[in-house]
Amino acid sequence: MIRSELIQKIADENPHLYQRDVERIVNTIFEEIIEAMARGDRVELRGFGAFSVKQRDARTGRNPRTGEAVDVEEKHVPFFKTGKFLRDRLNGN
């Protein structure tokens, strides 16, 4: 599902809301999650999962084409850990 499909589904299930309002709500939620993660905060949605930021240390990698050693800088990457409800739902429990 992509963002526009999510917006459309929510708008269809809530006919009392204008689609532009639903779009603003969805965009605001995503922006708040992004802002919190940019600050280094953890975002937890009970039953769904938790978004956090992990730090990857600098390392020496390899160029797959030439096999040459390449220095890879440290970086921060988004990480998602599923919640128990979502995990159980995916496994048919």
Summarize this structure as a short list of keywords or feature phrases.
3-stranded antiparallel sheet; 2 domains; single chain; 93 residues; 5 strands; alpha+beta; elongated; HU Protein, Chain A
Give a quick summary of the entry:
The protein is an alpha+beta fold. It is 41% helix and 29% strand.
User: In sequence order, what are the helices and strands, one letter per element?
Assistant: HHEEEEEH
> How many helices in DSSP terms?
3
CATH class label of the largest domain:
Few Secondary Structures
Count the domains.
2
Calculate the mean pLDDT score and round it: 95
Q: What proportion of the residues is helical, as a percent range?
A: 40-55%
Which fold name corresponds to the CATH topology of the largest domain? Answer: HU Protein, Chain A
Output the strand order for the largest sheet.
Answer: 1-2-5
Low-confidence stretches: none
CATH homologous superfamily title of the largest domain: IHF-like DNA-binding proteins
| Biggest beta sheet summary | 3 strands, antiparallel
- What's the total count of β strands? 5
Q: Distance N terminus to C terminus?
A: 23 Å
Strand % is 25-35%
Give me the secondary-structure category: alpha+beta
| Spatial shape | elongated
User: Radius of gyration from the CA trace?
Assistant: 19 Å
